[in-house]
């Protein structure tokens, strides 16, 4: 188990990594899934042997409210069907915290429930916000869970210039689920999970 990192350098490094992903040229991405709510692409991750996923869709709401529903806090558990528990373990200044959360089993429980401990950071980006995170090897692993690992992940939420009540939400996700899993099952689950994330979020924002 590691000690908690110094939050400021980790937050800065994480932000820079996500901005780098966000500037990756379109030609590097391959289409993985398209629904009415979102489009999902992927490319080989530079962090581990799986994929970095990019998801994008327009969400009808203001940036701050959308990000409040995504980042660690009271809203997330209410609407995210994949997340089963969430606890804030540590809080730092400058919108940083460490959270532990668990996820439900997927693909008829081929993918068993997972536990994650993530450092989370929310900051301004251009006219909008970026909320991002990375997993830490911190805290005891609870029984009945496999500890997964999120390599640098994040969500850019930017208001549309001509429709400021709508926002372009772009996510970058690269999750190492760990445990004995066929990679094809993981890839199928990731594309569907990201597309469902948008439809669930849109329903939650309309309440």
UniProtKB/TrEMBL annotation:
Q: Name one GO cellular component term.
A: cytosol
Q: PROSITE patterns in the record, alphabetically?
A: START (PS50848)
Please list the GO biological process terms of this entry. cholesterol import; cholesterol transport involved in cholesterol storage; intracellular cholesterol transport
State the name under which the record lists this protein. STAR4 protein
Q: Which InterPro entries match?
A: StarD4 (IPR042555), START-like_dom_sf (IPR023393), START_lipid-bd_dom (IPR002913)
> Which Gene3D superfamilies does the entry mention?
3.30.530.20
For the START domain, which residue ranges apply? Answer: 10-207
**Signal peptide location:** none
Q: What species was this sequence derived from?
A: Pelecanoides urinatrix (Common diving petrel)
> What are the GO MF terms of this UniProt record?
cholesterol binding; cholesterol transfer activity
């Amino acid at each position: 188990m590691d000690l908690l990192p110094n939050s400021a350098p980790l937050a800065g490094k994480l932000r820079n990594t996500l901005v780098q992903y966000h500037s990756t040229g379109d030609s590097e991405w391959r289409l993985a899934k398209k629904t009415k709510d979102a489009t999902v692409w992927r490319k080989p991750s530079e962090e581990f042997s799986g994929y970095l996923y990019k998801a994008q869709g327009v969400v009808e709401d203001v940036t701050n409210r959308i990000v409040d529903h995504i980042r660690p806090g009271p809203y997330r558990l209410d609407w995210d069907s994949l997340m089963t528990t969430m606890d804030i373990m540590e809080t730092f200044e400058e919108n940083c915290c460490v959270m532990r959360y668990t996820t439900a089993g997927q693909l008829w429980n081929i993918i068993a429930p997972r536990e994650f401990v993530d450092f989370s950071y929310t900051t301004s980006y251009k006219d909008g916000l970026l909320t991002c995170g990375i997993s830490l090897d911190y805290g005891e692993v609870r029984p009945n869970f496999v500890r997964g690992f999120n390599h640098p992940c994040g969500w850019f939420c930017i208001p549309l210039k001509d429709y400021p009540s709508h926002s372009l939400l772009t996510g970058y996700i690269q999750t190492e689920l760990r445990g004995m899993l066929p990679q094809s099952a993981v890839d199928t689950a990731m594309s569907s999970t990201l597309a469902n994330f948008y439809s669930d979020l849109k329903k939650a924002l309309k309440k």
